[in-house]
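In practice, a research group might receive sequence data for several interacting partners and want a quick structural hypothesis before committing to experiments. The following worked case mirrors that situation: the sequences arrive first, and a predicted assembly follows.
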Amino acid sequence: MATTTIPAGPVGAQVGRSLPRLEAREKVTGRAEYTHTMRLPGMLHAKIVRSTMAHARIKSIDTSEAKAFPGVYRVITSEDVRKVIPEPYYGPAFHDQPILAIDKVHYVGEPVAVVLASDPHVAEEAAQLIVAEYDELPAVFDEVEAAENKVLVHEELKPAGTFADLKHLKGRKGTNTALDFRLRRGDVDKAFAEAAHVFEHTFRTQKVLHLALEPFASIGDFKESSITIYSGAQGPSFVRTEIARLLGWPENRVRIRVPYLGGGFGGKLYIKLEALAAALSMIVRRPVKVALSMEEQFYTITKHPSTFRIKSGVDKDGRIIARKCEVYWNGGAYADIGPRVTQKSGFTASGPYDIDNVSIDSYALYTNLPPAGALRGFGIPQLVWAYESHTDMVARALKIDPLEFRRRNLLREGRPQATGTILENTKHEAALERVAERLNWSKPLERGTGSVRRGRGLAVAIKAVIAPTTSVASVNISADGSTTLYCGTVDMGQGSDTAMAQMVGEVLDIPAESVRVVPRDTDITPYDMGTLGSRSLFHMGHAVRLAAEDARAKIKALARDVGEPEGSNIPLADLFKKKYGMQAGNIIGTGIYKPDYVPPDATTGLTPNATPFWMCSAAGCEVEVDTETGQVRILRLINVVDCGKPVNPKIVETQISGASLMQLGFTLFEKMHIDAGQVTNASLADYKIPGIFDVPGAMENEAVTAVQSNGPFGAKGVGETATFCVSPAIANAIEDACGVRLTELPLNAETVFRALRERDNKPLGEE
Amino acid sequence: MTRTISFTLNGEPVAAEIKPHHNLVEVLQREFNLTGARESCGQGMCGCCTVLVNGTAVSGCLFLAAFADGAEVRTVESLANGSALSPVQEAFIEAGAFQCGYCTPGFVLMTTQLLDRFPDPDDDQIKHYLSGNLCRCAAYPEIINAVKIAAQKRKAGKAA
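A structural hypothesis for the assembly, expressed as tokens:
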């Protein structure tokens, strides 16, 4: 008789349960482990000395005073790094980022040197004694200016070779463009010539950042024949590959361990501090922890500022017949994943509309700003901000109701999207209609009285999930019958451990609570492309499902092997005992998933299969604008998404709510202020994120009834979906309320007030 | 420069060697392996480092450890009694009031203090008390709900 103490829980129908997070108790008791609070015996603390110049040649770095400071163990510059890693350049798309600056600095805040000490306060104090001298070079900060190539950020492009469509850029000189993606469909020039109306607008987004409350942290622990890196990383497999490449080692000597993440949002993707932690530990042969302060996060990775010129041709019936999109992505000094954002989001720049003639140019640009990467939407929120603001402006100019204009032009299921890929399993139309219904769109709105005016707005969007990507999982059934899941998806708060356990439970008909999900460790957990772009539930979900199905098949085979009749319900533990004579053995099921994909044509950008699934959402809001102060109050914020069949409805709701509130901050107030390349508000005292008082009067979150026919258990990802439409829905509502149109984020009281004054021909001065 | 402080930590008398510039969070982590209070912004803006000192919530990243000498210090680790969670902790789980969990100990402690002072808080009191705690996952609607559930649980617990 087995005496297992598996947690109680219902058997059957695990998918669809609103199960609390498996790690909930650890989190409310403060026992959950994060890299930022981890320590190893004998560990040194690293403090980074950062560039004070946006673009400059390094003349000299004087480390003598810091070295002499009591308690300092060692001071490190790129010279030391190159002794252990001769080519210390890393990055997912380009190998352009040095572990510590070599010869030149490319942005204010770039790591230049490091002080190591047992006492972090000593390292911090000594770091201030390092004096670097620079020869300043001209710098470029604006993405449109950067495209003119008057000031060059890098002498030569260095694509990583990981992505086939970047290879042609290798060795290219004289340019800041790290990728120019183009899409051509139909005959845009002819269609514009035939259009009854042509509209052209330019929209911009500001620089913001992920600002995870657990700042970046990595610990390197180098031993002679292996290295272990503890890191708050969203993609441990990628980190392993990249560290192995830098060291010239096989992957099996590199181990990446990832505890829980105190937020990620795309910031902790690919490789960040891991290369530095590895190099430092190699140099001193001791464990070294690199843990950033909140301020330093502002110099590590950010969201792409963007400029989007959008032009539409509309026929006399109010149908869009041509659209031209030019998008400039401000990637900062190092490419990170920017070129992927440029392409993978670029091809949906024309929006969820059925347009026969489309031209898209999407440019990844280097500038002398802190690098930009993926932030909860992989570029989509910047695009939707522009195209859904534009949609309303066109509708209003044509005196067509904005909802009616959208209905008239919406891309319906079964129709080709701009790439030529057919739109399927995409309930964006239903989402839009639900938002309109909730807003009571067909009835007039109470507009308010006096100086406080009310308005409402809506928006709708689609996103293609990044493709093609691979996930691998394994399920291990121990001899007592208990089940362990090994998968590399990183739980950074989205609840993936719980959802994956539910899928295992569904297949094996056991309570999800009884499934142990192993913390991510590349020595144990198999390959996964990364926890990004809302891909995990679909891709890893399939891999987990396949692994559990494989295990189930092996259980049946084992039962046959020991002579159990078909359909026997003998406990698993007894099955093992029958086979091995005692509590011994394992059943290991494996699953690998990689969807089909056809790369876009190099000249037209067209492909019949751009993505395994489409994400989509619609948002609506009611706002109140105080026309005397410019203050905007969000009375209601509605988000309706299609996530297929929710695996865990409660967690899905918190994802919708959390994503839309995060985007609310990016919409209404968040902005990195930058003066000559220097971030001037790099702290939570000066950079405001949403707090409890910023929650709108009413938050309405909904997932439309849907089944993703090719998804695991009918599901698809939802981590980003509710970010897409928030910004344009609010801008559209502001115009509806007070007649001013804002084309640049954020939509704070000052920008609204300035626009109101301009409307009244009483513009305010600059300061 | 080094001095020894003595204080009560989660009900136990303890002592620690500290320097004048050490803050309470780093002393709790380094000397006592308590990582529930954690530094994030380092400026007292986010509440991740919340600790109760003599019953009052403080930002542990701004609270010099030297001032804890002779004080009664309570951290999130003291709330559960063995495997039994406090009503506030239970309520946070029931309401799904966190995602990544990094800020959660701060919210749990602040809610505990709120309910100690106002057993039946209204929305304004809840928001006022929790306005010094930030959650980047933005679980605020669920947190407000959790506070209300916790208030009910505490009342039921007292009645029983």
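Before designing any experiment, note the following. The helical segments of chain B are 24-32, 87-95, 104-117, 123-130, 140-159. Chain B has a mean pLDDT of 97.
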